[in-house]
């Protein structure tokens, strides 16, 4: 047998990237399916897209210590006010996170990818609504306080329930704005500010988010940033993770194909875009979708020629 020698550097690089991508997919799947409701492990897996060598343990230990300190702050506030209501507990938690530690929403550099990485949010004590909410939920849980995510359009929120959770009940909290308590009117105004008239307000928008929903939203935020920055390898990694969580998502299948096209991985691009067109053709199409599919069909024809020329 003739020796093939060493693999070309580009092929070795592709293998390394594939291995890293596979590791991320396996890790996010495991974190999403782990027992309990913790989000920290998944959030730190997501941060590995930006920081591949990230060790999660110091940040999990940091959250544990913050949880204990928050527990003491909540108890002290209850003792000073004579109240153990959910509102009093939230006030004690807010005092610790936003007054003592100085966590603050990052308005000036909102589009910085570091705002989507839990390790950076913990170190810099600033982030976007969803990562600030993850910190809030994780610290609250460790302090013995139940706080759930609210997948509100345009601006992630959290809810603190008193006693057994009931649909629509509880305090709505905005960790991005120093733990502000929001009324229904506040939520209506927040919706108008972020999405305008595209979405009509209803109380269903304040439903509790599942863990996969929270993880997917974090990934979508980061993917949008990477595409905007034209950081296509990272955007492709994130898309792979999204498809692991939502395998039936046609939009993610399409985007994975388009990202592979941008990265000159023509075989993978052709496979994904052909699969997308086949599956998408089974549903009704509006004018915009039909126009988009025509553009993708042109990509597919180009890719077929390029792949044929490679063989």
For the largest beta sheet, what order do the strands appear in spatially? Answer: 3-4-5-6
Provide the gyration radius in Å: 22 Å
The tally of beta strands, per DSSP, is 6
Give me the strand/helix succession: HHHHEHEHEEEEHHHHHH
Looking at this protein, list some descriptive labels:
single chain; 311 residues; alpha+beta; 2 domains; four-stranded antiparallel sheet; two-stranded parallel sheet; 12 helices; 6 strands; disordered N terminus
Question: Can you describe what's shown?
Answer:
Helix content is 61%, strand content 6%. With 311 residues, the chain is α+β, with helices and mostly antiparallel strands. The chain has 2 domains: 9-247, no CATH class; 248-311, no CATH class. A 4-stranded antiparallel β-sheet has the order 3-4-5-6. Strands 1-2 form a two-stranded parallel ribbon. Helix 1 (9-33) packs antiparallel against helix 2, helix 3 (57-81) packs across helix 6 and helix 11 (266-280) runs antiparallel to helix 12. Residues 1-16 have low confidence and may be disordered.
Topology diagram in text:
Elements: H1 9-33, H2 40-47, H3 57-81, H4 86-100, E1 104-105, H5 118-124, E2 126-127, H6 129-142, E3 147-150, E4 157-160, E5 171-174, E6 180-182, H7 184-195, H8 211-228, H9 232-245, H10 250-262, H11 266-280, H12 287-310
Parallel strand pairs: 1-2
Antiparallel strand pairs: 3-4, 4-5, 5-6
Helix pairs in contact: 1-2, 1-9, 3-4, 3-6, 8-9, 9-10, 10-11, 11-12
